[in-house]
Specification:
Blueprint (H helix, E strand, L loop, with lengths): L11 E6 L6 H9 L5 E4 H8 L7 H20 L4 E4 L5 H13 L3 E8 L2 H9 L10 H7 L11 E4 L5 H15 L1
Parallel strand pairs: 1-3, 1-4, 2-3, 4-5
Helix pairs in contact: 2-3, 3-4
Length: 177
């Protein structure tokens, strides 16, 4: 999925995927300590568009059009972009796969996972950040995840993120050389 980038060597689109409570934003922040990228977080964009999100198809369409536009701008400016959203189905991911291809960027897929009891524990407590997902949202979404149809890094977020971060960095750096 990756090629050299005409915008600059080693430009990558990092695509996170995972149910609410699996640690996507936490992983993004940890990776941000090691790699500079545009952090495009769907929850932050949604909260910026609607103080009281409805999660309607229209609202979600607006959110993800904005997510795609922000990621496209970063990539075409020669910067890495990280998509922080559930991206649970291949249909959800399709626009970002296409974006990586259109911008000749390396696509690095990262699936975050954790046992269900850990998710429930995490979602039962107040959370930092923009996500409003709770256990009820998790219940609605938990049957949706599909495996990636291409290689992806799988991270169990009960453990430290460092091995997965090292792998993401290596993939990006190997592509640049």
């Amino acid at each position: 999925m990756g090629n050299s980038n005409s915008q600059g060597p080693g430009v990558a689109l990092i695509l996170l995927s995972g149910l609410p409570g699996t640690g996507k934003t936490t992983f993004a922040r940890a990776l941000g300590g090691r790699l500079k990228f545009a952090h495009v977080e769907s929850d932050a964009i949604r909260r910026g568009l609607a103080a009281e999100p409805t999660y309607s198809p229209r609202e979600s369409g607006m959110v993800f059009a904005r997510v795609e536009a922000e990621a496209r701008k970063a990539l075409t400016d020669g910067k890495h972009a990280l998509i922080d959203a559930t991206n649970l189905t291949n249909r959800d991911r399709r626009r970002f796969v296409r974006l990586a291809n259109e911008t000749d960027s390396l696509l690095v897929a990262v699936r975050l996972t954790v046992p269900e009891e850990v998710v429930r524990e995490r979602l039962a407590s107040p959370r930092d950040g923009h996500s409003q997902a709770d256990v009820a949202v998790f219940e609605k979404m938990r049957s949706r995840p599909q495996p990636f149809p291409f290689p992806a890094i799988v991270v169990d977020t009960r453990w430290g993120p460092e091995p997965a971060i090292a792998l993401v960095l290596r993939l990006i750096n190997d592509q640049a050389s």
